[in-house]
C-alpha cells in the first residue's frame, strides 16, 4: 500500500510518499512560494534533491507538479497514479467535531469549513489542498488527520475557560490544543521504550520548536495541553507570547492606540523569543548572543526554559506523577543546553540527567541515567508517518 501525505499551507505544500509495507519514505519534498514570484518545487528521492523552478500560481498547479515529479521517468518513483492507494491530509483545526482521523466526504469538508474561523490562517489552505486532490484524483480516498483530535479527550475542567458559558455554547470558545499528532506519536513511543502499556502510563511530551506546546498524556489520552483556543496560549515561542495577563491587551491597545488586528499581530508575530531578545525568533541565534554576553538574549532563553519547567511541574501534579518526559521537534530534538536548562531543578521528579547522553542532536536517546524512576527521552517526531498510518488504517477498516 502506498500513501501520499500532504500538508498544505497558505504558500507551500509539504509531501511524503510512503510504502506502508515497511513504512519507508519513497519520495518527499516541498512546493514553496505558491502565488509568489520565484516559486519552485524541491523533490527528494534517496537523498538526491531536484529543484524545479516554475510559476506556481495556486495549489492546483502545486499538487499537479507533485504528481508530475512522482511520475517522472528520471526522478519519479511511480509508474502510474494507480499505485497510490489514498491521500492523507494534515488539518490543523477540527474543533469539537473531530476526535479521530476521518475519511473525507463533502459533509466532512463542510464541517471543516464551519470551524475555519478558529484557525483562519491554517484551515483554508488545508481544505484547498483537499479540494484540489478531489479534483485531480477523484477516485482516491482522502483522509483528514487533525492536530486538535488527540486533545479531544481532555476533561471539561481542563478545556473550559472561566468566561460566560454562553461563549462556549455559541462560538466554541474553549481549549483545543495543537501538535496532537506529534504528542500522540512520541508518547506512544515513550511508553514502548519504558516497557509500559500506553493505556497505563503517565507521560509528559514537550513539542518544542518555533511553535511549542506541552501535553499531559495519562493512560493513553491527552488530559491537558498548553495551547488553547488558538496556538497563542501556553509556552513562550519564537514569535508568540504564550501566557500573559489578558488585561495587557486592552491596556496596550489604549496606550499605543492599537486595533484588535494590530495587537493580535504583536502577540503572534512580534513577541516570544523575538520580542524579549530583540534579535531573533531562532533559539540558536538567542543562545549564540547569550554566550556573547547579550543580557536580553539570556533573559529570553531563561524565560523560555522557565515556562516549560512550570508546565512539566503542573502536569506532573495533574497526572499524580510521571513515568517519562519526552523532548521532541526542532528545539526539543537538537538544543542540548535548552534541555539541560529546562530539566535543572526538576530532579525531585526522580531522574538524574546523563549529560553525556544529552550531548546529542536529532536522534532517539534516553538522557536520564540508569536507575532513574522517571525516564527522560529525546524522540524525533514523525507527524507524516502518523498521518500515513491513520490513512492506511481507515482504508483497511
Automatic annotation (TrEMBL):
<feature type="site" description="Transition state stabilizer">
    <location>
        <position position="179"/>
    </location>
</feature>
<comment type="similarity">
    <text>Belongs to the acetokinase family.</text>
</comment>
<dbReference type="GO" id="GO:0008776">
    <property type="term" value="F:acetate kinase activity"/>
</dbReference>
<keyword id="KW-0418">Kinase</keyword>
<feature type="binding site">
    <location>
        <position position="14"/>
    </location>
    <ligand>
        <name>ATP</name>
    </ligand>
</feature>
<dbReference type="InterPro" id="IPR043129">
    <property type="entry name" value="ATPase_NBD"/>
</dbReference>
<feature type="binding site">
    <location>
        <position position="383"/>
    </location>
    <ligand>
        <name>Mg(2+)</name>
    </ligand>
</feature>
<comment type="subunit">
    <text>Homodimer.</text>
</comment>
<feature type="site" description="Transition state stabilizer">
    <location>
        <position position="240"/>
    </location>
</feature>
<dbReference type="InterPro" id="IPR004372">
    <property type="entry name" value="Ac/propionate_kinase"/>
</dbReference>
<dbReference type="Pfam" id="PF00871">
    <property type="entry name" value="Acetate_kinase"/>
</dbReference>
<dbReference type="GO" id="GO:0005737">
    <property type="term" value="C:cytoplasm"/>
</dbReference>
<feature type="binding site">
    <location>
        <begin position="207"/>
        <end position="211"/>
    </location>
    <ligand>
        <name>ATP</name>
    </ligand>
</feature>
<keyword id="KW-0547">Nucleotide-binding</keyword>
<protein>
    <recommendedName>
        <fullName>Acetate kinase</fullName>
        <ecNumber>2.7.2.1</ecNumber>
    </recommendedName>
</protein>
<feature type="active site" description="Proton donor/acceptor">
    <location>
        <position position="147"/>
    </location>
</feature>
<feature type="binding site">
    <location>
        <position position="7"/>
    </location>
    <ligand>
        <name>Mg(2+)</name>
    </ligand>
</feature>
<keyword id="KW-0460">Magnesium</keyword>
<dbReference type="InterPro" id="IPR000890">
    <property type="entry name" value="Aliphatic_acid_kin_short-chain"/>
</dbReference>
<keyword id="KW-0808">Transferase</keyword>
<comment type="pathway">
    <text>Metabolic intermediate biosynthesis; acetyl-CoA biosynthesis; acetyl-CoA from acetate: step 1/2.</text>
</comment>
<dbReference type="GO" id="GO:0000287">
    <property type="term" value="F:magnesium ion binding"/>
</dbReference>
<keyword id="KW-0479">Metal-binding</keyword>
<feature type="binding site">
    <location>
        <position position="90"/>
    </location>
    <ligand>
        <name>substrate</name>
    </ligand>
</feature>
<comment type="function">
    <text>Catalyzes the formation of acetyl phosphate from acetate and ATP. Can also catalyze the reverse reaction.</text>
</comment>
<dbReference type="GO" id="GO:0006085">
    <property type="term" value="P:acetyl-CoA biosynthetic process"/>
</dbReference>
<feature type="binding site">
    <location>
        <begin position="330"/>
        <end position="334"/>
    </location>
    <ligand>
        <name>ATP</name>
    </ligand>
</feature>
<dbReference type="InterPro" id="IPR023865">
    <property type="entry name" value="Aliphatic_acid_kinase_CS"/>
</dbReference>
<keyword id="KW-0067">ATP-binding</keyword>
<feature type="binding site">
    <location>
        <begin position="282"/>
        <end position="284"/>
    </location>
    <ligand>
        <name>ATP</name>
    </ligand>
</feature>
<keyword id="KW-0963">Cytoplasm</keyword>
<dbReference type="GO" id="GO:0005524">
    <property type="term" value="F:ATP binding"/>
</dbReference>
<dbReference type="GO" id="GO:0006083">
    <property type="term" value="P:acetate metabolic process"/>
</dbReference>
Amino acid at each position: 500500500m502506498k500513501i501520499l501525505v500532504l500538508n498544505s499551507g497558505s504558500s507551500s505544500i509539504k509531501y511524503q510518499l510512503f510504502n506502508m509495507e515497511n513504512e519507508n519514505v519513497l519520495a518527499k519534498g516541498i512546493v514553496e512560494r505558491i502565488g509568489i514570484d520565484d516559486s519552485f518545487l524541491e523533490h527528494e528521492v534517496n537523498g538526491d534533491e531536484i529543484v524545479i523552478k516554475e510559476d506556481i500560481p495556486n495549489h492546483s498547479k502545486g499538487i499537479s507538479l507533485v504528481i508530475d515529479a512522482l511520475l517522472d521517468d528520471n526522478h519519479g518513483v511511480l509508474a502510474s497514479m494507480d499505485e497510490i492507494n489514498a491521500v492523507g491530509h494534515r488539518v490543523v483545526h477540527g474543533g469539537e467535531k473531530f476526535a479521530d482521523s476521518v475519511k473525507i466526504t463533502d459533509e466532512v469538508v463542510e464541517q471543516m469549513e464551519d470551524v475555519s474561523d478558529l484557525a483562519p490562517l491554517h484551515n483554508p489552505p488545508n481544505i484547498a489542498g483537499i479540494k484540489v486532490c478531489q479534483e485531480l484524483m477523484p477516485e482516491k480516498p482522502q483522509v483528514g488527520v487533525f492536530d486538535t483530535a488527540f486533545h479531544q479527550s481532555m476533561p471539561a475542567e481542563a478545556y473550559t475557560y472561566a468566561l460566560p458559558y454562553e461563549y462556549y455554547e455559541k462560538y466554541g470558545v474553549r481549549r483545543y490544543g495543537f501538535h496532537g499528532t506529534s504528542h500522540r506519536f512520541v508518547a506512544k513511543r515513550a511508553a514502548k521504550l519504558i516497557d509500559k502499556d500506553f493505556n497505563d502510563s503517565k507521560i509528559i511530551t514537550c513539542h518544542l520548536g518555533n511553535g511549542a506546546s506541552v501535553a499531559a498524556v495519562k493512560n493513553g489520552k491527552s488530559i491537558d495541553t498548553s495551547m488553547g483556543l488558538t496556538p497563542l496560549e501556553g509556552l513562550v515561542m519564537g514569535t508568540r507570547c504564550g501566557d500573559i495577563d489578558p488585561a495587557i491587551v486592552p491596556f496596550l491597545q489604549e496606550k499605543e492606540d492599537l486595533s484588535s488586528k494590530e495587537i493580535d499581530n504583536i502577540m503572534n508575530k512580534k513577541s516570544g523569543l523575538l520580542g524579549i531578545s530583540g534579535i531573533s525568533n531562532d533559539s540558536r541565534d538567542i543562545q549564540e548572543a547569550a554566550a556573547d554576553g547579550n543580557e536580553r538574549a539570556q533573559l529570553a532563553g531563561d524565560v523560555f526554559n522557565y515556562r516549560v519547567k512550570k508546565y512539566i511541574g503542573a502536569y506532573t501534579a495533574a497526572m499524580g506523577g510521571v513515568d517519562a518526559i519526552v523532548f521532541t521537534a526542532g528545539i526539543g530534538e537538537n538544543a542540548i543546553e535548552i534541555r539541560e536548562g529546562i530539566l535543572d531543578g526538576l530532579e525531585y521528579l526522580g531522574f538524574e540527567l546523563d549529560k553525556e547522553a544529552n550531548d546529542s542532536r536529532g536522534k532517539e536517546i534516553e538522557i536520564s541515567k540508569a536507575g532513574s524512576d522517571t525516564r527522560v527521552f529525546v524522540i524525533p517526531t514523525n507527524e507524516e508517518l502518523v498521518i500515513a498510518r491513520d490513512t492506511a488504517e481507515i482504508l483497511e477498516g
